[in-house]
Specification:
It is a single chain. By secondary structure, the chain is of the alpha/beta class. It has one domain (2-244): Rossmann fold (3-Layer(aba) Sandwich), CATH 3.40.50. 31% of the residues lie in helices and 16% in strands. It has 8 helices and 10 strands. The strands form 2 sheets. It has a 7-stranded parallel β-sheet with strand order 1-10-9-6-2-3-5, with helices on both faces. Strands 4-8-7 form a 3-stranded antiparallel β-sheet. β9 (184-189), α7 (195-203) and β10 form a beta-alpha-beta unit. α1 (9-18) packs across α2 (36-47). The chain is globular. The termini are close together.
Length: 252
């Protein structure tokens, strides 16, 4: 596990993502506030001629159930608006309007597998330690499925809607087992509100009560956090030392 503490998480995470971008690459994309600077930086590099998304495809982490795809806050709409439409990337997302939700979950798992798996998965983290919409108590081996959001997650996401009553209760999300199959995981967290979750994920016990702690079991995971999000970590001096002495040959 690599922990990078930086004043510019968006730039550093974009470096990690860009290292995997090539024709045929498969990206895993997250929505929410934390990934937005990453997408802006990737598009800036594309516009500068330093990066090409030709031949790249993508999958999203999750989607609200019973929210039309055309709704401006559906994750299908958000990711297209914020990144993939401008980048020219073909993106697949769980279909919130499917009449058979379990069958849609199975289709999504198959689509990821048929694409060759995800090369690099971008992640955010919830204040309760969830990744994707795998809320506390989620099976560490779970696959894409329906989850019920906690009141805290709905309250956190209410800022994107007119009121909390408009936030859907159910979602389709990649499972923790699905996420762990990506070849490289890059988690971005900013702000003091994420400090406790980051500390539990990185330095706490592996537990279903903190779903993101399962990332400790992954062979290649990078946490990119700002100073505020790193505030509760105990080994910050060591993480900084490691970053300062990273071998030139050690790729993302």
């Amino acid at each position: 596990m690599e922990v990078v503490i930086t004043a510019d998480p968006g730039f550093v995470a974009a470096d990690a993502i860009a290292a995997h971008v090539r024709p045929g690459a498969v990206l895993g994309l997250a929505t929410g506030s934390s990934p937005l600077p990453v997408y802006a930086e990737l598009l800036r590099r594309r516009d500068a001629g330093d990066l090409s998304f030709d031949g790249v495809q993508a999958f999203t982490l999750d989607e609200y159930v019973d929210l039309p795809r055309a709704h401006p806050q559906s994750y299908h709409a958000v990711i297209r608006r914020e990144f993939t439409e401008a980048a020219g990337i073909t993106v697949d997302a769980p279909n919130s309007e499917a009449t058979d939700i379990p069958a849609e979950a199975a289709r999504y798992e198959t689509a990821i597998r048929n694409a060759g798996g995800i090369d690099v998965q971008l992640l955010g983290i919830g204040t309760d330690g969830h990744i994707g919409f795998n809320e506390p108590g989620s099976s560490l081996a779970s696959r894409t499925r329906v989850k019920t959001l906690t009141p805290q997650t709905r309250a956190d996401n209410a800022r994107f809607f007119d009121s909390i009553d408009d936030v859907p209760v159910h979602v389709l999300t990649q499972g923790l087992g699905t996420i762990l199959e990506a070849r490289h995981l890059v988690l971005v967290a900013t702000g003091e509100g994420k400090a406790a979750a980051v500390a539990a994920a990185v330095e706490g016990p592996v537990s279903a009560m903190c779903p993101s702690s399962v990332l400790q079991l992954h062979r290649h995971v990078t946490f990119v956090v700002d100073e505020a999000a790193a505030a509760d970590l105990r080994l910050t001096d060591y993480y900084r030392f490691v970053a300062d002495h990273k071998p030139e040959w050690q790729a993302w």
